[in-house]
Amino acid sequence: MQNKQPYSPSKKYLFFISQDYSFPVLRPLQDAIWQRGHEVRWFMYGNEIHKEHILDHEVVISSIQDVIAYSPDAVFVPGNVVPSFIPGLKVEVFHGLPGNKTKKNGVIYHYIIRGMFDLYCTQGPRSTDIFKSLAKKYKYFDVEETGWCKLDPLFPLSNDTSRRQKKSIFFASTFSPRYSKAKILHPFLLKMAQEHDYQWYITLHPKMPQDIVDLYTSITLPNVKFIYSTEVIQYFKKSDLMLCDISSITYEFATQLKPVITFQSPQTNTVFVNIDTLDELEKSIINILNGMHKEPLNIETYVHKYHPYQDGKSSQRVLNCVEKILDQKIRPSKKKPLNFIRNFKLRKALNYWVF
């Protein structure tokens, strides 16, 4: 596949991905890279990513050997791990905003440090403060607040709903059995779609069990549309309200300053409306869509902590940070840990044994 860029690249970048959710995170960054005349390649690994999502004008490297030969200046990763044996600055750009899901020991997943990244591009003050404190502790990575690439296409915000024929609800659910309410909410959603003239957009986490996915994809009502993880941003724009459980996608949606309802969430906050019963849930949805909700939803102040940037230029800020580090050859004084076990697992997964 040939790249159609009409210029000679000056820097080489790599997208290292294993999940479909990476595509909407990295495509705005890819556009920013091309605008600057740089080169970008995609490398996909594992059996959970669907290569058919690659577009005709995007360039893929098929083997890990060719990745090494490509020798990128920087590697952008929405996931949690990246091999040390790939050349280049390792940049964490995250696959979600900082939610509250925790491991059983109470550690929030978003802030786990795995010793594999040189730079964390944080999304807002809440995560920046925590990662900067972790940087002081570990001393082998940098932290820069940039905003999140995935959200660039959402901005600038628009309140024009004149073209919508009906109110729209975006439903999402996490895959974790501890938190997911997708199975419980299926009959409720089906009943609501049959009895009310609302448009429903439905998305499920890519790791959701197939039997639950089948429940939702089998709905054939004209006002229900199933959305894949690569499409969510465009349907955020079309929706007036989100219904969810505890997925971090709630924070993504809320950056539009639109209301969010969570169902039986173990962790509540002052701006999401948390509902515990199905009867109450139906009333809340109707009231919010009709502008009858009485409690103030102070979303703007809350969102500012997570993602204050509404200029659609987070990808540009990410590149500014990366280029500054590359051009000035700035590095933390302490080296990253060797990470023998994680790198061995990655070598095994990628079948790469050159040392």
Which architecture of the largest domain does the CATH hierarchy give at level 2? 3-Layer(aba) Sandwich
CATH topology of the largest domain: Rossmann fold
Percentage of residues in strands: 15-25%
- H/I helix tally: 11
| Shape, principal axes of CA atoms | globular
What class do helices, strands and sheet pairing give? alpha/beta
Q: What is the total number of structural domains?
A: 2
In N-to-C order, the SSE pattern is EHEHEEEHEEHEHEHEHEEHHHH
The span between the termini is: 30 Å
What characterizes the major β-sheet? 6 strands, parallel
Mean pLDDT: 91
Q: What's the Cα radius of gyration? A: 21 Å
Instruction: Note poorly predicted spans.
Output: 1-8
Strand order of the largest sheet: 2-1-3-4-5-6
**The CATH top-level class label of the largest domain:** Alpha Beta
The helicity comes to 25-40%
Description:
- There is one protein chain.
- With 355 residues, this protein is of the alpha/beta class.
- It has two domains: 12-153 and 309-350, Rossmann fold (3-Layer(aba) Sandwich); 156-306, Rossmann fold (3-Layer(aba) Sandwich), CATH 3.40.50.2000.
- Helices cover 33% and strands 15% of the residues.
- The protein contains eleven helices and twelve strands.
- It has a six-stranded parallel beta sheet with strand order 2-1-3-4-5-6, with helices on both faces. Strands 9-8-7-10-11-12 form a six-stranded parallel beta sheet, with helices on both faces.
- Strand 10 (241-244), helix 7 (249-254) and strand 11 form a beta-alpha-beta unit.
- Helix 1 (22-35) crosses helix 10 (314-328).
- The longest helix is centred in the C-terminal third of the chain and has 15 residues, at 314-328.
- It is globular, with a radius of gyration of 21 Å.
- The two termini are 30 Å apart.
